[in-house]
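Data availability (excerpt). All sequences and predicted token strings are deposited with the supplementary files. A representative entry, Putative TetR family transcriptional regulator, is shown inline so that the format can be inspected without opening the archive.
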Amino acid sequence: MPPARTARDTRERLLDAAEELLSRSGYDEVSVRGICAHAQANPAAVHYHFGSKEQLVAALLESRLAPMWTDRLDRVRADPSVAGLVDATLAPLNRLLADPVGAMRLSLLARFALAHPQTRWQAPWFSLDEWTAVLCAAIPGLDAQTARRRCRLAFALLLPQLAPGSPLSPAAAGALRDFLIAGLTGTGEPAPRLAEIPTPTSPSPTFPSPGDSL
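Structure token line:
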């Protein structure tokens, strides 16, 4: 007689089923019913164990990706610096992006986080609170509101680079690192306010299209 399935077994089967289905279809195309059927679980299992499809996907991404960053970022928290924070964030990326499964997970993380900014993350480093605290510790005198805004803007820049699931070139990775450090540090002269910006006397520059990469 096979052993009885535990709640943990069911939860893991739901995570595995969701990951397999999401590797083949987009978030909106994967249904709660389909995940439960693929996991051979009760149709209400996703809502029982996670509350919603959104929270199931958040739990999936945390369980698969948090181990890649937790130790690195914990070390930065113990000895905070802006460069250390950026380097700890970027270090695992190309190794993950070079692996089909890792690339799929990063792409899913990027697309999901951009489309669901109000997701309730449980793992500490998936919340802006941890990043804000480290940035404040790294830059004495920086207030939490400004630090949080800088962190949010940094992720708004980083996540679209991960969405295609392709490795970054050395030049792109270097430019991204420099830009993130400068943005989080707040270096440079403040930009002029809109009222102070002069009317251009020459044609506007051509900006990259949304599909262009660094």
